[in-house]
Design goal:
3 helices, 64% helix
């Protein structure tokens, strides 16, 4: 399994930021009446709130997928550090 490069990670997150830009598409959304009423009373823009929540869920799932994909590499690195120590550790002053 190939590990994602720093550049690929940065590109993935910059593309996430661009997801909420551009043309908007009209969609139907069903939420409970009490929730809709509470949002109206607080002047919450439902479209913006839904978009924010969807973006947060996308980020959470992408983060989770990245962690799962890179878990073996992180475990191998941690085992190596445990076995061999950190490079230059003898020169650390803290």
């Amino acid at each position: 399994m190939r590990q994602q490069t720093v550049e690929e990670t940065r590109a993935a997150y910059s593309s996430l930021a661009g997801l909420s830009e551009g043309n908007k598409k009209k969609m139907s959304l069903s939420i409970s009446e009490p929730l809709a009423e509470a949002a109206r009373q607080l002047n919450i823009n439902l479209s913006r709130a839904a978009e924010t929540g969807i973006l947060q869920e996308i980020k959470r799932r992408r983060d989770s997928a990245w962690l799962e994909k890179n878990r073996p590499a992180m475990a191998a690195y941690n085992e190596r550090v445990e076995r061999e120590g950190l490079f230059g550790e003898e020169h650390r002053g803290f």
